[in-house]
Amino acid sequence: VQLVESGGGSVQAGGSLRLSCAASAYAYSGSCMGWVRQAAGKKREVVATQGYDGRTTYRGSVKGRFTVSRDNAKDTLHLTMNDLRPEDTGRYYCASDPTYGADCYLGIETTFRYFGQGTQVTVS
Fold it and tell me: What parts of the chain have a pLDDT lower than 50?
């Protein structure tokens, strides 16, 4: 399983970033995927999920600001983040779990099996 994130960085509040996750075929095709973040001293939390069926779920604090999407031609998952806030600061991990199949039916309560190394997002 391979999940490789890119696109993190430092931005001012109100700014935007787009994260990308290049996935191996096993991690991508037919899998529930999502983005999980961890702020310093806090537990990991699921930010957004997208099943292979295309359906999405979002944590309440990011609804309307973040958009998760898939590029099925490139086995890539994206997270577009707008109107970033200091509380969005953290390490963002791409996550996958093929055992759920195409439907992330647990939404933001999904416990993923596989994670990438993460990419840091800092909002000041």
Answer: none
